[in-house]
Amino acid sequence: MYPKTKTSIRLRQAVLAAFLAGVNAGVYAQPEALPANLKDVFDAAWARQPESQALLMRRDAVQAQRRAAAAWTPEPPALEISNKTDRLTRNDGARELEAGIAIPLWLPGERSNSGALADAQTAAVESRVEAARLRLAATVREAWWNWERTRIDADIARGQLDNARRIATDVARRVKAGDLAQADQHQADGAVAAAEAAVAQAEAGATTAQQQLKALTGSVALAAPTGTSPAEVEPTSSDMPIHPALNELQDRAAVAERTAALAAKQSRANPELTLSTTRERGAFGERYDQAITVGIRIPFGAGPRHDSRVAAARADAVEAQAQFALDRARLQSEREAAEVRVNAARTQLAAAERRATLARETRGFFDKSFRLGETDLPTRLRIEAEATEAERQAARSRIELASAISTWRQALGLLPQ
Q1: Domain covering 39-71+106-267+302-412 assigned CATH 1.10.3720.10 in the classification
Q2: DSSP structural state of residue 404
Q3: 110-176 and 182-217 helices cross at what angle (nearest 10)?
Q4: Which residues, if any, are the signal sequence (predicted)?
Q5: Domain ranges across the chain
């Protein structure tokens, strides 16, 4: 048996990882990783949504309803056939055969209101989809920027670990030369251990955030971009469309109003025009007589059931209009708050970048003085920690500004781009 050195263990782990990756790729045929782009992630997430998968069928349904509203009759005609005979009783030869067709008729104003309702439902289908897309965009944006935050934290933590190891190596060399005490070596090694723990925690957070994003997209892996992902374009005065949520409520109110108008016209069942022909004889040996019958069937009023339908439709219209007023005020407040947050984030970023620049310069000064023996180790480690924290704050401030712009676009009803 050969001894299990660190090199052999790493080699075995690498071979095992490669083997498992090949098995997974061959057996499950997983799709390729998504590019690190917010719009592409949103598009992938939208393709998996129930509203997206049912959109074509909903469009077909409203188009069929529009064709039905444009038809000549509210319902298809019906064929009526009857045969009367005395064969089972006296059997004197009496026969009567009647064949006819019953044609339903539109009530006054019913056809035009049916067409208006079909048009309103067509618009409602599209606005419902746009509102669903915007709701999904909010979820994707939150997951995306959370991943960006955790990824930046992991990058900063790895950088801090590299610096801690570099300092520990320098301390070990100087301890061996007798320039520093063994206690300094312990302190430097403790800083490395703390940095390793911070890296493990940050990478765990980044993995968790990545898995949450993958749950939306269904992808195997997300390709991490180099550096910070590009932020969405800051909206301008021209980027002020009607919010999809308000469009949805407007269309819902329109559908309810058209439904109420149609229900008001449908105060009774549809009348029917009947056209039939009758062929009959009274007994054996008599000639068959031919007759044509034209008739109309007019139902009575629907009464309380009709009143109930009209009242329910009007209640839906009033509810949608009231909700529209509430949401319009809420969205206006969200827009103003989002714009204020962007301005605040921009100010915070400027301050954080100034602090990071000063901290990097200070770290360079103390790093040089430490190597010359003019600065003790605790001071050097403190300066390193301050510089790392300043870099982390600057990186997080850049993410927060990008996230604030994304939230502002969300409040304006704009999809990821």
Answers
A1: no
A2: H
A3: 160
A4: 1-29
A5: 39-71+106-267+302-412
